[in-house]
Amino acid sequence: MSITKALGCLIIRIEDILGSDNVYTLTGAEVLMPGGTLERRNVVVQDGAVARVEGSVGGAVGESVDLGGLILSPGFVDIHLNGGGGASFEQGTSEAIQKVIETGFQFGTTGVVAAINTAQREDRMRQMAALADYHASANDVLLGVHLEGPYYHLDQRGAHHPEWIRYPDPGEYGAWIDAYGDLIRIVTSAPELPGGMDLIRTLSKADIVPSIGHSMATDEQVDEAIEAGARMVTHIYNAQSTYTRRDDGKHLGVAEMGLMRDALTVEIIPDNRHLTPRMQQLVVKVKPHDKICITTDAIEATGQGPGTYELMGGKVWVDEEVAYREDRKRHAGSILTMDRAVRNVVAAGAEVGSALMMATEIPARTVGASTKGRIEVGADADFVVLNTSLEVVATISRGRVVYSADA
Ligand SMILES: [Zn+2]
């Protein structure tokens, strides 16, 4: 029986089982264990959570579903996602948010930190209000918000609207934290701006991850930012300083400091354009794998094909691989999916278990999503079932099958 056909049966079986009883056991899979090893295990799912993780023999409870040697990974956790399937989080309707989340299911994503980009003050607050409403009613997949901007260096603005970029304003970010402090998981900013270090200190105190990005910071400034509480570098090698020689001597940039400093976890966009295959090889070779988060930075055009789209206050042009501003010089997000990202990182030299960990356990841990990213007792029953080519066969969210490849 072909894998697809076998999984066709699997899907029906799980749905049947869930109709009658909330307990089932997934057997015969190579399970991604915390720490990144693949081991043959039986996983008991009850009421949408992992109830037990057993050896490969015995321990089954309820109906058993044999995965026949497929890989069972925690569902992917994308901590930098803008949109997909023609919708974006910034549109601020529950239908749009739902559409982005459902599009992610096709690619194995079961946990999302919604990225919203540089905007005018009122628009930013309106977008957060919509995401907070959605999160209050359905928080299985939406883990929080990643604020990209507006406190960016103009020379590293990428596709962000220059008129909306500004210096850190304690009145403004204080209002975000007061109203949505529990929702905001990551804020990307340029620490070298006036007030930039104070922003990082304030975020850190509020238990929000301060991330360095769209920044011209020197190596000294990055170290100062780490001292202030910075813990991440956003989309490494994109919209940030690298090695330079200036009048006052030589400096490493944000990218090299991101690779070197253990205090910093780095986001990668391994779509072969934001990071070329060789840049992926570099990061995978020099950065500890438990400090790398695979992200997509994907926009609404994901899954929609080439064309022009309205985004961040302007037109964006999309080809088969990436999005640009119309001048075609600056990227404007990707159309990458998490499954393809994992395959590319494996092609760049990472072990399968390591690459999967960069797409699951590490991003979940980075944003403090304690029930996501690991297959262990008490974790959410969020899984992606993959074949040996790392293609998505099925996606399970809180114990329910939300996508199957042959459906
Ligand atoms: Zn960005």
Compose a concise summary of this entry.
By secondary structure, the protein is α/β, with parallel strands linked by helices.
Write the layout of secondary structure elements.
Layout: H1 3-20, E1 23-32, E2 38-46, E3 49-54, E4 63-66, E5 71-74, E6 76-81, E7 83-84, E8 87-88, H2 94-105, E9 109-116, H3 121-137, E10 142-148, H4 170-180, E11 184-189, H5 196-205, E12 209-212, H6 219-228, E13 232-233, E14 244-246, E15 249-251, H7 254-260, E16 265-268, H8 277-286, E17 292-294, E18 307-311, E19 314-318, E20 322-325, E21 331-334, H9 338-347, H10 352-358, H11 361-366, E22 383-386, E23 392-397, E24 400-404
Parallel strand pairs: 1-4, 1-5, 6-9, 9-10, 10-11, 11-12, 12-13, 13-16, 16-17
Antiparallel strand pairs: 1-2, 2-3, 5-22, 7-8, 14-15, 18-19, 19-20, 20-21, 22-23, 23-24
The structure holds zinc ion (ZN).
Zinc ion (ZN) binds at residues 148, 158, 213-214, 234-235, 239.
